[in-house]
Amino acid sequence: MKISYSALYSATIFTTAIALLSCGGGSETTHEDNSANENGSEIVISHELSDAQMLNPVNYSDAGAGYILKNIFYPLLSIDFKTLELVPLVAEARPEIEVTEDNKMNITYRIRKEATWDDGTPITPKDVEFTLKVIKNPKVDNVNNKPYFEFIEDMVFYDDDPQKFTFKCKDVYILAEVQSGDLPLLPRSIYDPKNLMDGYSIRELTENQEKLASDPKIIEFAEDFNSEKYQRDKNFIIGCGPYLLDDWQTGQKVVLKKKENWWGDKLKGAGEYFNINPPQIVYLTINDQTTAKEALIAGEVDVMRGIKAKDFQELLETEKFKANFKDHTPPQMAYTYLGVNVRKPMFSDKRTRQALAHLIDVDKIIDKIALGYGERAIGPIHPAKEKMYNKNLKPYDYSPEKAKALLAEAGWADTDGDGILDNTIQGEKMKFEMNYLYNQGNDTRKAVGLLFQEEARKVGIIVNVISQDWSIFLETTKTHDFDMYYGAWISTPIPNDHKQIYHTSSYNGGSNYTGFGNDETDALIDEIRVTIDEDKRAELNYKFQEILHDECSYLFLYYPLERIAIHKRFSNAETSAMRPGYQLTGFTVEKAAAQH
Q1: 24: which DSSP letter?
Q2: What is the pTM of this model?
Q3: What is the pLDDT of residues 326-343, one digit of tens each?
Q4: Where does CATH 3.40.190.10 sit in the chain?
Q5: Do residues 63 and 71 touch, judged by C-beta distance below 8 A?
């Protein structure tokens, strides 16, 4: 049975998030960058709040790295920036998808005849196979990524058509086309010079993970692949995309350089991913937002997103900004939340967590801190996705009285008269004192913490508002060493697969930082992943959102609007809901660029 998936990728479809909104790092801007911009340079300088963790396209987990990597590594398919529809990149077309009589899937692609590696050799199905082998290698450090490719169990090649191949899938999976097309193709000559992965098939790597974890060649390959050279060294970070890593100065900038003889230039005009213009893209790290704003006004930065709401409003009234920049506020495919560690005894009772939800004045946060650039959130599915969004759920209202009642029900009381609630949990008496973590340099998250701190104080809860360097903050959340943290997840316009963030199997090594979940929610997530019928999947998503809302491991805040500034010298610089909200590779400058 041949089926079409085009309806799954409309502009109203949002998925579970892929990576945390990143903030952190540190650097100074340079006069050199400023003078280049004032002379109408075609070089694009984009502000980043933090360094990428790494530039390994399989192992990375932060959004900032993803924005850089997508210009170095091209997959089979991607999502059109404007239409949010799937489009072919290295593949010549979207695949043919077949659901078999035994309820499995076959996904068949052909690779473009133009697609080559930098040495001119063609990209073949064997390169696709190698990339999938890397992802499935049990010792490769990509636990976040592995679940999305579990459904592919084998590959078929065709002697009569060497550029054609088929993924054999063990299950029907809602993200089958998206994920099968999202392999960041790796050149085997760079990433496996010893041919260590040649002796293993996709089926073997799928079925024998535990056994292969002790295989010497598997271990040797993984140790090399996980090493720093494939994270930072420009000689080992090479893909088939239009740009090369030219320079990485830690805490300062990452520089990409356009390839001179890139295969995609032959397809110029065939879509945004082949209309590549800037000779260089500079990702300039400035971890202080005030300093970054000043660099923007001074012309040292061309593109800035995530501008603090107050700064953005002030910029709109600044004459120099109005003369040189355009402002944009597209919707973000993201949601913000406070994560509560449900596996800590203090928060094991959901009534305690629900009480915390009633102490957060989200409407005030949106109005006074986000300055209106957001919409109240009730869960991980954006309301624009009308069919999957559970509109029957009502957000927790700000109500200290309801919070007090729930806390009392959960056993919290001020038994010693010191003004602080206490409780005996698992035989141990404890004060209600908790830490609220946020990443250093993010004033919005700090302000939310201070607001929550004050509201909690009124009912007898001590909240310590603590900032951490971005890398430490990430490690703290991943190792579950927190009480509460402010987080955000970015999503993309594909169907919702909740496994990475909410399945209990994702607690160690995945992204289930809060410890949410049980057998019931795991079963729901597993069923959602394989339910193609949209009506049935909507019912399942409704139930999942109800449980998530009731359990309060996530205290959802709002779906933000992006705040972007782009220098006026660039044309073809539209914005959209596709993160990060702009497509740097398409920016063009008229030959007679205006002097500023």
Answers
A1: -
A2: 0.71
A3: 999 988 878 999 999 999
A4: 19-72+241-330+563-589
A5: no
Pairing label, strands 558-560, 374-376: antiparallel
**C-alpha to C-alpha distances, 387 to 52, 169, 174, 384, 537, nearest whole angstrom:** 35, 27, 15, 9, 9
- Rounded to the nearest 10°, the torsion over CA 424, 425, 431, 436 is -160
Architecture of domain 19-72+241-330+563-589: 3-Layer(aba) Sandwich (3.40)
**Residue ranges matching CATH 3.10.105.10 in the chain:** 334-560
Q: What percent of the chain is predicted at pLDDT more than 70?
A: 92
Residue 246 tokens read as: 């030219």
CATH number of 334-560: 3.10.105.10
Q: N- to C-terminal Cα distance for the chain?
A: 60
Long-range contacts of 3-6, Cβ-Cβ distance < 8 Å, separation of 24 or more = 3/97, 3/98, 3/99, 3/532, 5/86, 5/97, 5/177, 6/85
Q: Which element (helix H / strand E) includes 129?
A: helix 125-136
Contact assessment for residue 434 and residue 461, using Cβ atoms and an 8 Å cutoff: yes
Q: Quote the CATH superfamily of domain 75-235.
A: Dipeptide-binding Protein; Domain 1 (3.90.76.10)
Query: Which tens digit of pLDDT belongs to each residue from 465-511?
Result: 999 999 999 999 999 999 999 999 987 778 888 999 999 999 998 89
Q: What is the DSSP letter of 354?
A: H
Q: Judge contact between 151 and 221, C-beta under 8 A.
A: no
Contact by Cβ (8 Å): 155, 124: no
Q: Tokens for 358?
A: 């009633």
Residues 311/294, Cβ–Cβ less than 8 Å: no
